[in-house]
Amino acid sequence: MKIIRKLALGFAVAAATHITYAADTGFDMQTVDPEADRIALQNYYKSRFPNTEFADYVNGIYSVDADSREQWVELEEFPPYEFDVEKGEELFNTAFANGKGYADCFENGGIGIRHKYPYWNKEEGTVKTLEQEINECRVKNGEEAFKWGKGPIAQVSAYMAWTSRDKVFDIQIPADDPRAKAAYLEGKKFFYSKRGQLNLSCANCHLQGSNIRIRADLPSPQLGHVTHFPVFRSKWGELGTLHRRYSGCHKDSRSNPLKPQAEEFRNLEYFQSYMSNGLVANGPGARK
Amino acid sequence: MNKGLIIAAVLALAPTFAAAESFKDAFEMNRAMYGKNHTFTWQGKQYTTMHEEEAEAAVKATKANAEALLAKAKAKNAEVAKLGYEWKLTRGILTNAQTAIDKGEYRKALNLAAQAKYHARMGIQQYHYAQANWYLAVPQ
């Protein structure tokens, strides 16, 4: 029975792969062109879901599945993340033991900057995420780092996202440091590579498989994937970060999942956020 | 026959592998249709539908043999982990193989070690396949 179910999954995904194209560019440092990738992805979705407005992709699966959208609109009337935003604000404004606070660590006192993450940090030669810098701020000021994934880190992140609502993502890949483009390329590659015992890529579910039933679930389009994080997921019954979701989805291919904030995940976030350029930050979000 | 191996063998038929070289296609098709220990002909030569690991597990069930295969499986899994393609269940299977050895259940240990090594080997293949083909799924 187990075998049959797995095979059925494999074939469902195989059936959905008819809408792929053979790429002749974009697979190495010479040919990769993030802006061309972004436009190609938008065009892909334009033809796939002609009735969905570009701006609506910030709403994940609800941008393409009318049935679940109704329930979600109801859910958003009393947003389940409200408490977390309040808690996050409180945490954000509580001084550390040394008298400093989060506002001292971030540009503009940490207000309205969510959409600038992740970004390429030339000095450190790596992609930096918001959660990473929240914890670095703590450690620098003599506090213990929060656990990644959920709880206070997600709450602080939620408050910071809340203050950034409607700001437009405009992730940069600086041309003066080829390592930035390499990080983007690594993220892109991660997204499209099949892995795990089920031999599935992120793209199998979130590109070809967008809004196609896979077991009991409808995967969302990858366009707009990152805009609303952190997210209150009914299934979790709590708020969680993007990398918590990445770990869960990575495991869904039956891979041994990476840990939140692993370099691979940060590169993946860099790629996915670049793909969401032009969309607004709308975190925190609510999902099933 | 070890159930885990059957599952893994069946899974190897998933879309990625269908595009691989034709000996693999012939092997997988024969394996799927006739199970293990079936003889088939490919380009004029005869082959059997045994996975490498099944042959390795088909030895006398002794402690030394079980330990040797487990060591090989662990090494393979370390190799695939380094490539970032470790499968989810493999470490647990390796632990169970060690437990079986500790209990003197060498046949069971051999089968588990074979299964883990198969997972790792498939993960390595997946990695190489992805390196060469990942971009084919990117919309242009």
In short:
The complex is a heterodimer of chains A (288) and B (140). Chain A has 288 residues and is mainly alpha-helical. Chain A has helices at residues 2-16, 34-48, 66-77, 82-93, 130-140, 152-162, 178-192, 202-208, 242-252, 263-275; strands at residues 119-121, 126-128, 231-233, 238-240, 285-287.
Tag the structure with descriptive keywords.
heterodimer; A: 288 residues; mainly alpha; Cytochrome Bc1 Complex, Chain D, domain 2; 2 domains; 10 helices; 5 strands; 42% helix; disordered N terminus; B: 140 residues; two-stranded antiparallel ribbon; 7 helices; 6% strand; flat; SoxXA-binding protein SoxK (chain B); signal (chain B); coiled coil (chain B)
Large-scale geometry of chain A: globular
> How much strand of chain A?
5-15%
Total separate domains of chain A: 2
Identify the strand order in the major beta sheet of chain B: 1-2
Number of helices of chain B: 7
Keywords (chain B): Coiled coil, Signal
Organism (chain B): Neptuniibacter pectenicola
Protein name (chain B): SoxXA-binding protein SoxK
Signal peptide (chain B): 1-20
Could you outline the blueprint of secondary structure elements for this entry?
The complex is a heterodimer of chains A (288) and B (140).
Chain A (H helix, E strand, L loop, with lengths): L1 H15 L17 H15 L17 H12 L4 H12 L25 E3 L4 E3 L1 H11 L11 H11 L15 H15 L9 H7 L22 E3 L4 E3 L1 H11 L10 H13 L9 E3 L1
Parallel strand pairs in A: 3-5
Antiparallel strand pairs in A: 1-2, 3-4
Helix pairs in contact in A: 4-6, 5-6, 7-10
Chain B lengths: L2 H9 L3 H4 L3 H13 L4 E4 L2 E4 L3 H6 L5 H21 L6 H13 L3 H28 L7
Antiparallel strand pairs in B: 1-2
Helix pairs in contact in B: 5-6, 5-7, 6-7
Describe the structure.
The complex is a heterodimer of chains A (288) and B (140). By secondary structure, chain A is mainly α. Chain A contains 10 helices and 5 strands, in the order H-H-H-H-E-E-H-H-H-H-E-E-H-H-E. Chain A has 2 domains: 34-79 and 172-287, Cytochrome c-like domain (Cytochrome Bc1 Complex, Chain D, domain 2, Orthogonal Bundle), CATH 1.10.760; 82-162, Cytochrome c-like domain (Cytochrome Bc1 Complex, Chain D, domain 2, Orthogonal Bundle), CATH 1.10.760. Helix content of chain A is 42%, strand content 5%. Chain B is mainly alpha-helical and 140 residues long. Chain B has 7 helices and 2 strands, in the order αααββαααα. In chain B, strands 1-2 form a two-stranded antiparallel ribbon. In chain B, a hairpin with a 2-residue loop joins strand 1 (39-42) and strand 2 (45-48). In chain B, helix 5 packs parallel to helix 7. The radius of gyration of chain B is 16 Å and the shape is flat. In chain B, 36% of the residues are buried. At the A-B interface, helix 1, helix 2, helix 7 and helix 8 of A face helix 1, helix 2 and helix 7 of B.
